[in-house]
Amino acid sequence: MRRTYTNEWAVRIAGGKVEDAERLANKYGYTNLGPIIPGDEFYLFRDDRKKSRSARKTRSLSANQLQHEEDVMWMEQQVAKRRVKRGYRRIKRHTDDNEIIEEDEGRQVSKSRNRKHPDPNDPLWTDMWYLNRGQNDHDFTARMDHNVKEAWDLGYTGKGVVVTILDDGLERTHPDISPNYDERASYDVNDRDSDPMPRYEFSDENRHGTRCAGEVAAIFNNSLCIVGIAYNARIGGIRMLDGDVTDAVEAASVGHNADYIDIYSASWGPDDDGRTVDGPAKLTRSAFEKGITMGRKGKGSIFVWASGNGGKDADSCNCDGYTNSIYTLSISSATENGNIPWYSEACSSTLATTYSSGATGEKMIVTTDLHHACTNMHTGTSASAPLAAGIVALALEANPQLTWRDLQHIVIRTAKPINLRAGDWTTNGVGRNVSHSFGYGLMDAGAMVKLAKIWKRVDEQHRCRQFYPSRYKNIPNGNRLQLQLYSDGCYAAAEENKVSYVEHVQAIVTLKAPKRGDLQIYLTSPSGTKSTLLTKRARDTSRSGFTDWAFMTTHNWGEQAAGLWILEIDNDGWDDAELVKWELVLYGTDRETGDFGGLHTSPLAVRSVQMEATSSGFRIHNVFFSVIVMIIFRFL
């Protein structure tokens, strides 16, 4: 893939002092644009002597000399990354204030929709099927909504919670948004100023962020458009997609005002084209890590991410390093009728699901739009992530002390698999239903706030790393490589490495292949839960393979770490592939988390409906085999 280099450099300066950054920038003819994230050692320098975009990496004497300065710990020329918004359908029209947009035909919906409703009176409330159809006891849609009204009835509306939308801007003047707009949660990273207003153009391409914001925090009962799920939350916007998206741009966005902002919602990512493998680079990885360790005054920033729209190209969201991260709450979509949308990507990193658009004839998401308008055609996983962010805001109001991991625990324990149709539902080793298309199921706002209110903080996260002892394993074409790695959960290691009960699991893989898309990768836990880490991607013809790529699964959440872990790689290509190395990383706790947080005190109960697709015979066999192996290892 061709790279586009900018005339900006990220520079890490020892001590991070502003005067040192200014001195070095002036000495070598750069403009110091300031710290990438305030308080960090990373600064952004621009070289106005160079073109703003170039196909070639800059090789200059000044850059070389700067790199060798004693105070410069690291520097890197910034590359413009391809990042796509995860929504569908393009707009064709313009409309008057506060009227509804039909994008595919450019006509306004009849004003007869704007009839009043008792609770609330927002004119599109009856079109918000994903929030208010749970009362339909007489048809198949009963219980098929996000149970938001129960959370509202309990008094939770997002008050005191701050959400920001990382996107192409936010129309802060929209009358259904402006009362909740929060300047402190907003910034224009593209133009480096405090105003996130989108850039207007004929196609209204930069409508995406405003649409996402309305789903979260549109005003309740004001006779305008819709009502946001967390309608009393504060809402901000980071304008960062309307320009070159570099590592520095992403890091500045993800790390903006992390002690003030509670939830970051992102409905974008690398290209969902079925051939891209990409994720956060050095600065953004650092911003994520700083966010979860120091954000929200140490409780951890909440990052909600759309899982991707590459279904038509057989893409895998495990090839997206943002949704595949342990730090993000990855959200998939379900259609109005509980089906897998045509654009959906199946992967083991997905945590849960919210509603969005589907096939022809199925309804879409209604929300705010540019020019103070409304739309009933917001689509894709772009629409799903903000719904999840709004639900999370309700849970945070119920318990502001929740950590980023507490929230993932609560989502998993309250998500509902019922009425979501997928052929791969299985039951993991602790009785929870899970699917590669839907994660643990549909998010339930009422259940989340009730559990959040009584939740006790989980133990500190531990990390256990184990390497497969052999390297350079051949994978013949048309064959499967199976590797078995026994883990004791790092029981003999330092205390912070002991993992008895699993949360996230990573298989960090380096391999070579003549065609990367011909590979499939699976990981089976000691409890017999089989995760698909990578599916075949016909469009992925790359010969680069994978280098230290961390495939992640959430499907083993709550299972015991000790036992035999099995990695399987299928090579359906025309030539041999080679596994260079494999590392198993188990994240979790040494002590079992209870049903209400804290420590477990009673026997585990089955947490959801058993699915017919569960292969119980295989599970029992695998658990028995694991126990035998554990006994053998302990007596060696």
Present the secondary structure layout:
Layout: E1 4-13, H1 18-27, E2 31-35, E3 42-46, E4 53-54, H2 61-67, E5 72-80, E6 84-85, E7 100-102, E8 107-108, H3 129-132, H4 148-153, E9 162-167, E10 187-188, H5 208-217, E11 234-239, H6 247-254, E12 263-266, E13 268-269, H7 282-294, E14 302-306, E15 328-334, E16 352-355, E17 365-369, E18 373-378, H8 380-398, H9 404-414, E19 426-427, E20 433-434, H10 445-454, E21 462-467, E22 473-475, E23 479-487, E24 501-512, E25 519-524, E26 530-534, E27 546-553, E28 563-571, E29 577-589, H11 616-635
Parallel strand pairs: 7-18, 9-11, 9-12, 10-11, 12-14, 14-15, 15-16
Antiparallel strand pairs: 1-3, 1-4, 1-5, 2-3, 6-13, 7-8, 17-18, 19-20, 21-29, 22-29, 23-28, 24-27, 24-29, 25-26, 25-28
Structure report:
The chain folds into 3 domains: 4-80, Peptidase S8, pro-domain (Alpha-Beta Plaits); 85-454, Peptidase S8/S53 domain (Rossmann fold, 3-Layer(aba) Sandwich), CATH 3.40.50; 462-600 and 609-635, Galactose-binding domain-like (Jelly Rolls, Sandwich), CATH 2.60.120. Helices cover 19% and strands 25% of the residues. The chain is built from 11 helices and 29 strands. The strands form 7 sheets. It has a 7-stranded parallel beta sheet with strand order 10-11-9-12-14-15-16. The longest helix has 20 residues, at 616-635. The radius of gyration is 24 Å and the shape is globular. 54% of the residues are buried. It is found in: Membrane. Its cofactor is Ca(2+). This is P/Homo B domain-containing protein.
